[in-house]
């Protein structure tokens, strides 16, 4: 750690033995030279890095994570990729690369071109296209619709994937079930018959949950077919889960 490089030329001590025979003056002299030679900012920086390293190691020792169990969306590779694609999409770079690459790439790379070039933000789904993202196809992400908004929940396949406790929310907009907790009868976005104030408050609560989560993010909107069925009754179903709000 001592910055020997910045030390001024020192009167040569003939032998190491002689140096150690006068330790007091030597040490004081050297540390003085250190402070003169090193920019004070470097010392602060060094301590900061040291504190950070100790912090990460301590966090890893106690929680097995480097951020005290704190979770960042940006630490997730899929989200990083999403942000990258979103930025490219905004700057219209894909339009340029598209025309070039489509002439260069072989036919066999259609999957790559599809995933890369079909990116749009916000992406617009129909009920049918949203249904593809229920987790059954492991090559595709898992999306949850909620009153018209669509969220990527792929990071929690255990909960939303096939066999998961909340798989019924995947690949569809079941806003009504988010309000009523009727996970078999109310898997629809049709909110008619519900108390509008309670529905609005429950839905905005769940939307906030998905938007603030470190694992989920908003990807687009689902445009529903007009509802032609008669309104469902607002009664409580037998399999109703008792909790409301996130
Ligand atoms: C209106 C009623 C309810 C709604 C809309 C609802 C919705 C949800 C949602 C969306 C999740 C996933 C959260 C996440 O992504 O991390 C969840 C998780 C969970 N809920 Fe509910 N819930 C309701 C009622 C209940 C009730 C009554 C119980 C208790 C019996 C319950 C137990 C759980 C448990 C244990 C989890 C964690 C599951 C896991 O991560 O594997 N929920 N709930
Ligand atoms: C998911 O959707 C596909 C196609 O829409 C369907 O064949 C499959 O049964 C669905 N899986 C689940 C678990 O709902
Ligand atoms: C739910 O969707 C309806 C119709 O698009 C809209 O008027 C309402 O504000 C939405 N509620 C929330 C909480 O997003």
Write up what this structure looks like.
- The protein is α+β, with helices and mostly antiparallel strands and 246 residues long.
- It folds into three domains: 41-70; 72-118, no CATH class; 122-246, Cytochrome b5-like heme/steroid binding domain (Flavocytochrome B2, Chain A, domain 1, Roll), CATH 3.10.120.10.
- The chain is built from ten helices and four strands, in the order ααααααβαββαααβ.
- It has helices at residues 16-20, 23-37, 40-63, 77-90, 93-104, 110-117, 127-131, 157-160, 175-180, 196-212; strands at residues 123-126, 143-146, 149-152, 217-223.
- It has a four-stranded mixed beta sheet with strand order 1-4-3-2.
- The longest helix is centred in the first third of the chain and has 24 residues, at 40-63.
- It is extended.
- Residues 1-21 have low confidence and may be disordered.
- Bound molecules: protoporphyrin IX containing FE (HEM) and 2-acetamido-2-deoxy-beta-D-glucopyranose (2 copies).
- The site of one 2-acetamido-2-deoxy-beta-D-glucopyranose (NAG) has 6 residues, from helix 10.
């Amino acid at each position: 750690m001592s910055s020997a490089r910045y030390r001024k030329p020192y009167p040569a001590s003939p032998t190491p033995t002689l140096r150690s025979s006068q330790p007091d003056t030597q040490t004081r002299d050297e540390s003085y030279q250190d402070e003169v030679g090193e920019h004070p900012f470097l010392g602060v920086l060094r301590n900061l890095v040291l504190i950070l390293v100790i912090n990460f190691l301590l966090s890893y020792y106690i929680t097995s994570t480097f951020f005290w169990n704190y979770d960042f969306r940006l630490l997730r590779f899929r989200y990083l990729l999403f942000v990258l694609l979103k930025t490219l999409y905004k700057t219209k770079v894909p339009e340029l690369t598209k025309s070039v690459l489509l002439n260069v790439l072989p036919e066999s790379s259609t999957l790559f071109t599809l995933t890369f070039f079909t990116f749009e933000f916000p992406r617009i789904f129909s009920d049918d296209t949203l249904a593809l993202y229920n987790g059954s196809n492991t090559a595709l992400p898992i999306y949850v619709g909620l009153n018209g908004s669509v969220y990527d929940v792929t990071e929690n396949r255990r909960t939303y994937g096939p066999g998961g406790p909340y798989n019924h929310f995947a690949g569809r907009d079941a806003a009504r079930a988010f309000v009523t907790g009727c996970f078999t009868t109310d898997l629809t976005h049709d909110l008619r018959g519900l108390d509008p104030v309670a529905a609005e408050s429950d839905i905005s609560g769940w939307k906030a949950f998905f938007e603030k989560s470190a694992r989920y993010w908003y990807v687009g909107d689902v445009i529903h077919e007009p509802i032609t069925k008669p309104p469902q009754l607002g009664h409580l179903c037998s399999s109703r889960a008792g909790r409301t709000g996130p």
